Amino acid sequence: MNAVPKKTLRLLSLAFLLSHSLSASARYAAIVMDADTGRVIHEVEAAHRWYPASLTKVMTIYMTFQAIEAGRLRLNEMLTVSAHAARQPSSRLGLRRGQSISVENAIMAVTTRSANDAAVLLAERLGGSEANFASMMTQQAHSMSMYSSAFHNASGLPDEGQISSARDLALLSAALIRDFPQYYRYFSATEFAYKGRVLPNTNKILKTYPDADGLKTGFTCGSGYNLIASAKRDGRRLIGVLLGAHSSAERFKQMGNLLDLGFEKAQAGVAGMRVEQLVDASYEPPPFQLSSNRCAGSAEQMGADSGSGSSEAIDIRPNHPSRQAAKRSVKSRYARVESSHSDWAVMLGDHRRKTDADVELKKARHVLGATGNSGQPQVVRQKIKGKQLWRTEWSGLDQNEARSYCKKLRSRGFECTLLPGNA
């Protein structure tokens, strides 16, 4: 066997390190959709698989509402706490084995306090066991076109097989609001009074964003800090999902920005694809978002190493001076608006692997820095001569911006091709 030249080995090692760096680096997934039309207004990796953490409980409660409406469960029914439910780790209500709690209080404990013990208690009542209920959850998800989702428990505690996506969770949230408007108030409550204590809702978006009226928080080391929020303004209801923030404060701040961005784009008349049309062709495993040295317990359960997850911040900026260009970019991408001024693009290259395209896009972002604030950077799947390729491009630019971007990128060794509007 011929030895591999040292130069080739170095290049292969560099490619591996870049690919590994990408999979370990900070990422996030997000979506904003119109709850009434099911149209996507904004998304970033929305179909990519992710660990849902306690956002899982939205499905647990959806199925609880189903059972109540079908007459198989009553709000005032008393449930007896099992040993399994009582053993659940935090966050929890502190239920003890043999104790009784009403279905309504269990729902409130889940929606306001994200109580794992209450979620398991409801699961056992509806499925006979938590494991059986988890199978029912997965079946329910697939019946709702949540094809990236699989559930192994009712709470969202760390499990390699417990996966979903921002797209799927947006679908679920829209279904919950549509199918059970009479019960949505449980996700809007700002506090929960239980046994002489008044417990505040962990979902601070209800207090920090004026138009928000629900839904749910979630956190594990694997997922990062997650949030689903719904807000209504001028008769339009939006649902936002943000997965992978690096702190609780970041998720609330960036969700506010995400919803602002959604309302701005909706007002501008963005007509996106239906949420069901978003697909993840990569089938990559969920990223592990936070490092094991920050979250040793659940990280070790899921096999993370100390290098998992960087602290690169999420930055969603709806009020940037170039927001009009961003709106035009989104219109061009989703609604095929015929415009000759802001639909120029720069193409950096085609790659056989999405990870290589992602690396190139990340490097281009770094080179452009603050000058790269206009338009829409993206990795787009292409089929050329029967082969699937991943194209790195920057769309939604005017002619001068496109020329400026290419000039700067070429000066740093990038191949850059101008793609004129209406080309």
From TrEMBL:
UniProt entry keywords in alphabetical sequence:
Carboxypeptidase, Cell shape, Cell wall biogenesis/degradation, Hydrolase, Peptidoglycan synthesis, Protease, Signal
Q: Which domain of life is it from?
A: Bacteria
Signal peptide interval: 1-26
Which GO molecular function entries does the Swiss-Prot or TrEMBL record give? Answer: carboxypeptidase activity
Task: Give start and end of each Peptidase S11 D-alanyl-D-alanine carboxypeptidase A N-terminal domain.
Answer: 28-246
Classification via SUPFAM superfamilies: beta-lactamase/transpeptidase-like
Q: Which Pfam families match?
A: Peptidase_S11
Please list where the region (Disordered) is annotated.
289-333
UniProt record similarity statement: Belongs to the peptidase S11 family.
What is the protein name stated in its UniProt record? D-alanyl-D-alanine carboxypeptidase
